[in-house]
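Human: Here is a favour to ask of a fellow structure person. Comparing notes only helps if you start from a blank page. Give me a protein, with the fold worked out from its sequence. Please set it down just below, with no commentary around it:

Assistant:
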Amino acid sequence: MRKLFLLGDSTCACKDGDKRPETGWGEMLQPLLADGWTVANHAVNGLSTRTCFSRGIFACVEAEAAAGDGAIIQFGHNDEKVDDAERGTEPWSSFMANLAHMASTLKGKGVYTVIATPIPRRKFIGGIMQDTHGDYAAAAKAAAHQAGVPCVDATLPAMLEYQRMGEDSRRFHMDFAPGIYPNYPDGDADGTHLRPEGAAYYASLIMRLVREEDAGAPFLR
């Protein structure tokens, strides 16, 4: 059984029962993989590229991954917290360097590695969907180029889809009225984290973008 390793933050990570319906897109990936592949989801709530190294998570993936496996790396949300000394990184220096190091290291082991830009936050001002990631999406693309691995843009296509959907895009996120979910009796207004429908959307989007980038990616169904 070959493994598709996922490295990322809370938008990708597996969730505990007391957080449902919050769902990471990595939880929706297994049905989209080719036979003989399984998801190894190492994404963690609050993780950045910096803490992926400092907490030993990348070291675990590096040790476990073998030639013929795959990996998708997606960071940005927590790296952007530049006032957080533990997690924050600068897009064109430490963030880019960290991503490139992860990707080139895994590629060097014979792991088919993809970098994905961060999924957007759902934020509208005056009816216009806002880009909250600044240079981090572009820096992710530059890191992929530096490492010589494919990059998929999960940011802009989703922003355009949200603009098309308007208010209906709330159903993708943890943004809902009181009294709907037992774990959130007072409702929630979270435009970052995903509900199952949003997680399924991003899992499908990322797989579609990988196919468009390289239809020969080994984990594609």
